Amino acid sequence: MILKDIRVLDFGRYIAGPYCGSMLADLGAEVIRIERIEGGEDRYVLPVTEQLDGTMFMHVNRNKQGMTLNPMKPEGRTVVRRLVETADVVIANVPQEALLAMGLDYDTLVGYRKDIILVSPSAFGSDGPYAKRTGFDAVAQAMCGAVKLSGTPKNPSKSSVQWVDFATGMYSAYATLAALMHKERTGKGQVVKTSLFHSALSLSHAFTMEQAINQPHRVASGNRSQLAGPSDLFQTRDGHIMLSVVGRPLFERWARLLGEEHWLSDPRFLTDEYRGENGELLSQRMQRWCAQFTSDEALRRLEEARIPAGPVLSPQQLLDDPHVQQAEMFSWMDYPGVAGQVPMMKAPYAFSELDTSIRQRPPSLGEHTDQILKSIGYSENDIKALREKRVV
User: Fold this and answer.
1) CA distances from 309 to 62, 249, 298, 328 (A)
2) DSSP at 127
3) How distant, in Å, are the alpha carbons of 105, 126, 272, 323 from that of 233?
């Protein structure tokens, strides 16, 4: 556990901040998720328990302790101060005005502990005319160009998976590790800033650069790639598969499989760029081939030819997938209010020398409040008084 001596206070909400915290927790940090007394809105997204706890909360809060706190009350501010005095990192993905109101701004925190690191993801960053705007993942998807390039020209489409939020969480964790290394070398804390908009721009930047240089004014082409081909979604006799042919060697294998060797010398298909520009014809040919087979039959032939392809799976089909099961990609865990067990996704990386297993299920609301307060010097009578005043 490389971060076993690091304490993190996670005041995050929804995905970006909490996912940063979960990644640090995977590496061994003691991460305390701090919520409102009634629970934050993000606790109840995709509810599955008797208490309406949601899977989105579970997903980004593994390996954490949980406590409730109202930092707007004077006694709550005192609890914050005593917690920060023991902490290395504070995560708070809330607007600057809220940070000030809660006493979580850097100037206040550094008064409690001079080497504290504040990780502050936001919607649009701290500079520019959008700095004070609120925003969510879908807004960043739309504004970075990704939505315009997805779907069709008349019906642009966003992703149902919040990739901007999760990318911001990953960037935040990555930057936090750098800040911790800097602190170890210099003794100095600092503010780590990330934003949804910056993350989205970072991931879609190749298209932005191309537009600035060549100005192709690309428009959406459904599931068909414009960068190579055939690369598209195809219907089989019983479902759909995704195929991705990129590079000359793969195209040669694909052409031979489909009996189209003459296309290997066709000037329309000599490079990935040309195959992307003429991808509609390639997709039409591939669709005729796929229509003959079930998904399993088509995928077996493609695998034999060493051509990258995969089935379009539903969430249930994913859970039933033999590779997912045999690779033990989930840890099945009990959770209060759930009949049966919850599949908790393991860290999506592994080390030869470090343990990143799931040590603790996501916390129920306020589960470790008393334990955490006692660790910073509160007695049972003190905690009772705080509860009576609705501070915790």
Assistant:
1) 32, 15, 9, 22
2) S
3) 47, 40, 18, 22
Residue type, 77: R
Which DSSP category does 268 fall into? G
Joined tokens for residue 59: 């997903």
Question: Are 15 and 45 in contact, with CB atoms under 8 Å apart?
Answer: no
Backbone region of residue 377 per phi and psi (left: phi > 0; alpha: psi in -120 to 50; beta: other values): left
Phi then psi for residue 371, to 5 deg, are -60, -45
Q: Output the pTM of the full model.
A: 0.94
How does pLDDT run across 1-31, given as a tens digit for each residue? Answer: 899 999 999 999 999 999 999 999 999 999 9
Place of tokens 């009578």: 381
The dihedral built from the CA positions of residue 315, 317, 319 and 325, taken in this order, carries a sign that is negative
Give CA–CA dist 140/198, Å, rounded: 9
Return the structure tokens found at 88: 């290395």
| Cβ atoms of 68 and 76 closer than 8 Å | no
pLDDT digits (tens, 9 = 90+) for 35-60: 999 999 999 999 999 899 999 999 99
Other beta carbons within 10 angstroms of residue 182's beta carbon come to 14
Quick one: CA dihedral 345, 349, 355, 356, positive or negative?
Answer: negative
CA pair distance 140, 288, nearest whole angstrom: 37
- Smallest Cα–Cα separation from 251: which of 263, 241, 242? 263
Look up residue 387 and give its amino acid. R
CB 57 within 8 Å of CB 42: yes
Mean pLDDT of 236-244: 98
Taking Cα atoms as reference points, which of 282, 295, 279 lies closest to residue 227?
Answer: 279
Cα–Cα dist 340/52, whole Å: 16
CB 73 within 8 A of CB 389: yes
Can you state the angle between helices 163-186 and 16-26, rounded to 10 degrees? 50
Residue 22 has phi, psi (to 5 degrees) of -65, -35
**Whose CA is closest to 23, among 155, 143, 138, 121?**
121
Are the C-beta atoms of residues 362 and 64 closer than 8 Å to each other?
A: yes
Through-space distance between the first and last CA atoms of the chain, rounded to whole angstroms: 30
Q: How far apart are CA 70 and CA 332, in angstroms?
A: 33
Task: Enumerate residues 6+ apart whose C-beta is below 8 A from 382.
Answer: 373
